[in-house]
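dude i think i finally got it to work??
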Amino acid sequence: MILKPNCECCDKDLPPEAADARICTFECTFCADCVETRLNGACPNCGGNFTTRPVRPAKLLQKYPASEKRIYGTQPTCLEARSDHAG
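look at this
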């Protein structure tokens, strides 16, 4: 599993231990707030539902580190979310 570092919608940081990280079956990653308020519980990429992203045990992060590559959605609601977040 790839632990993406941010919400693909609003760009909120989601470190490996984030309790509010949500993923779909393809590991698209969003924060709980965006899932509930902007995405209506459906992944904008695949249409699937979300589940809480598992927390990787700290002792395994050195061998299996989280990704540093930030991913950004291009859906209008996500562009707006990033604009709101930046401003």
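Residues 8 and 46 are 13 Å apart (CA to CA).
im so relieved honestly
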